[in-house]
Design brief:
Number of domains: 1
CATH class: Mainly Beta
Strand content: 25-35%
Shape: rod-shaped
Helix content: 10-25%
Order of helices and strands: HEEEEEEEEE
Oligomer: single chain
CATH topology: Jelly Rolls
CATH architecture: Sandwich
Radius of gyration: 29 Å
Number of strands: 9
Structural class: mainly beta
Number of helices: 1
Largest sheet: 5 strands, antiparallel
Length: about 170
């Protein structure tokens, strides 16, 4: 029977290599766990309650926010107070295109003049998303604008305040 002899230097180098490989693999970090929540820098919270009403002509729009060209925007809550809530629309205005309506601007408290309430639909934009009927999921393409669109054909109506909550994301 033949005897195998391992040179002590080879044994030492092999042991060091195995130890180094073990240490290197042990020091690699596991992939970060992700959640659905966007980082703070990606959250959008836009609010305006102007001291003078913003007039929007019939068929016209008022730009609330323009989406950066390298991001998508998802709106999770929207509310607005206008003088014609059933005619005004939340819309997406593609760069150079006609507005694409996303939803009706109906916000706030129900009409109930008998109980001392308002005679028209209105609400506080800071109450979003509860005041506007609950959470949304509207998406807006990169480079487009979020606008309040006066879908009427005759009169100008006023925007008295609005609020948007959402987040940016990449493709």
């Amino acid at each position: 029977m033949r005897t195998i002899q391992i040179h002590p230097l080879s044994l030492a180098v092999g042991a060091i290599a195995v130890t180094a490989a073990f240490v290197l693999t042990a020091q690699t970090t596991a992939p970060a766990q992700t959640t659905w929540l966007p980082p703070k820098a990606m959250i959008v919270n836009v609010f305006e309650e102007p001291t003078v009403a913003i007039s929007v002509p019939a068929g016209g729009t008022y730009t609330v926010l323009t989406v950066p060209s390298d991001r998508w925007l998802t709106i999770t809550g929207a509310s607005a107070r206008t003088t014609a809530p059933s005619i005004m629309r939340w819309s997406e205005a593609p760069s150079g295109g006609a507005p694409i309506d996303k939803g009706v601007v109906i916000s706030g408290w129900p009409v109930n003049p008998a109980a001392g309430g308002p005679t028209t639909m209105w609400g506080a934009p800071e109450a979003t998303p509860v005041a506007c009927g609950g959470p949304l999921g509207w998406t807006f393409a990169p480079g487009s604008s979020i606008v309040i669109h006066n879908a009427g054909t005759g009169l100008a109506y006023d925007v008295l305040g609005y609020s948007l909550i959402g987040y940016y994301s990449r493709n």
